[in-house]
Amino acid sequence: AKGTSGGYQICARQAITEKVAGVIQGFVTAQDQTALTKAGIPVVGVSDDTSPNSFPVSSSFALYVSLGVGLANTGCTRLGIVYLDGSDFLIDYIKRGFESRGGKEVARAPVAANAADLSPAVAKLTGAGATCVAVSLVPSGAAQALTALRQSGRTLTIGGISAIFNEDLLSSLGSLANGLIVVDSQLNTHDTAAGGIGQVQADARAVDSKTKLTEQAVVAWIAARLVGSALRSTSGEVTPVSLTAALNGLRGVDLAGVVPPWISQPLDNPSFRRVFNHYGVNYEISGGKAVRKGDFYDIAPILRTK
């Protein structure tokens, strides 16, 4: 789809025309799966949180809830948030996760996408007594924020989600990223001590020995395993209807620990109804590598709260 809305819709129409039974969807920047939903074609991977044909492996909105929980799990009780102006709805998810663990949001500081100086935003947070800071900006802005926070002279726990603090950004930050908390909804690709990541790497390289292990590759591997499990429970011709039914019936699918065992059990909050991977996990950056800090935590009770 080349990351464009038009390209995505061309791919969606092609899937409908060719009468495919299902779609494994990767990371795209502009997605409107209405056409696939109307056609009843199940979408596995990066899909929305509400459509009846959606089986999202990772939910960006739920991940913001995990960020709040993850920062609270470090022992912080006073949260500050620096974020892209106009994205308060995402920031409210961070607050919800953090305050569910007994902490308190003390300040939030919106910044423009083209802001050249983030020191006023940082001063607002530190002046309010924040001891940890959630960063929700585009990668370039996140780098600016991290620099300004490190220069504040305060001892702060700083965190963000893996989609923002991706491998390229962490590499460019170098030692500045040490101590940063990165929250994810599946094991990080650096977690090579975990058997599941080794399995992902082995399976990918069995197809292409030059495959680079990325977050996108991990999500695609999970999606493929789910589809494979669903196919084993179907008989006769595989259609969108039969595959959707099989995917909805998945219970306790073993994903080698990359995420906890999968259960396709809808949540009773319409905003997160199709979020089946409702887990977060913390990583701390050390020497450019992500080091896991603790086990997965379940945020389903928070997502159920309307």
Automatic annotation (TrEMBL):
The keyword ATP-binding does not apply. Residues 7-255 form the Leucine-binding protein domain. It comes from the Bacteria. The keyword Signal applies. Keywords: Signal. Transmembrane segments: none annotated. Belongs to the leucine-binding protein family. This is ABC transporter substrate-binding protein. It comes from Candidatus Frankia alpina.
